[in-house]
TrEMBL record:
The protein, known as: Amidohydrolase
Domain of life: Bacteria
Record lineage: Bacteria, Pseudomonadati, Pseudomonadota, Alphaproteobacteria, Hyphomicrobiales
GO molecular function: hydrolase activity
Family the entry assigns: Belongs to the metallo-dependent hydrolases superfamily.
Annotated Pfam families: Amidohydro_2
Domain Amidohydrolase-related: 3-274
Length: 278
């Protein structure tokens, strides 16, 4: 079963998508299950992991409602305030919902690059690890040294790096991203999503622009710790759903046979997020 391990839905009228603006004008409309359904069918994808796009519990509740009502959603990666004293109780409450399968703070947009090392955040990250709850790491390259320190402090954390940690593909920059990603990959409980590349590339990107970055994470993580994600609809700023899927298939197909591709395009995500039976 093929799984898209990273997609979003939103309703603009909800009003809590603080990162949106005219710089992403094509995204300033509702994107909901009926918009994605035909795209999944054309690409042969059966299930998705729905990921938060707003830093509010209200949006997480909205996504959980969508999951319960939508046949192809396997689970939701939600948001909670990790620097709130009430975090343990909030986490326990959301974990009672069977559709809540992971947690993601939006580290890339926070004022402090080392937010994840705040004492209370690090303490709560330990609770996430103890619960065995998947943790999505949304970062740029500059955040990775701080992420490494957090992983050292909480070595049992089951985590996944979203979007290859957004390397500077448009500029062709590989370092220091390459070194930091290799260091993160040394933690055996950490995976990486093959996602979000097209929006980090130049407007006229071609497959060869993406290849060095895919090759590196393949070398670092291998077929058991990579998972495909479309990052739809954000990716539509640079490519169609089909183009994103095709790029991943072509670039990964150079490395993996049918068994490995089945892991990256479904099996790994099902295991990581615990949605095998859905």
């Amino acid at each position: 079963m093929m799984i898209d391990a990273h997609q979003h839905f939103w309703k603009i009228a909800r009003g809590d998508y603080g990162w949106m603006g005219e710089h992403v004008a094509p995204l300033l409309r509702d994107f909901l299950p009926d918009d994605l359904r035909p795209l999944l069918a054309r690409s042969g994808i059966a299930r998705t992991i729905l990921v938060q796009a707003a830093e509010t519990e209200a949006e997480t509740e909205f996504l959980l409602e969508r999951a319960e009502a939508t046949d192809f959603i396997a689970g939701v990666v939600g948001w909670l305030d990790m620097d709130d004293d009430a975090f343990p109780d909030r986490l326990a409450r959301f974990r009672e919902n069977p559709w809540f399968v992971g947690l993601r703070p939006m580290l890339q947009g926070l004022p402090e690059d080392d937010y994840i090392l705040r004492p209370r955040v690090l303490k709560h990250l330990g609770l996430v690890a103890e619960a065995g709850l998947p943790f999505d790491i949304l970062t740029f390259t500059r955040h990775l040294p701080h992420v490494l320190r957090a992983l050292e402090a909480v070595p049992g954390l089951r985590a996944v790096v979203d979007h290859l940690s957004k390397p500077e593909i448009a500029a062709g920059g590989l370092d220091p991203w390459r070194e930091h990603v290799a260091a993160v990959a040394r933690f055996p409980n950490v995976s990486c999503k093959i996602s979000g590349m097209v929006t980090e590339a130049s407007a006229d990107w071609v497959l060869e622009d993406l290849r060095p970055y895919v090759d590196h994470v393949v070398e670092c993580f291998g077929e058991d710790r990579l998972m495909f994600g479309s990052d739809w609809p954000v990716a539509t700023l640079a490519a169609s759903y089909a183009e994103v899927c095709n790029a991943a298939h072509v670039l990964l197909g150079r490395h993996f046979g049918p068994a490995g591709m089945a892991k990256v395009f479904g099996g790994n995500a099902a295991r990581f997020y615990g949605v095998e039976g859905r």
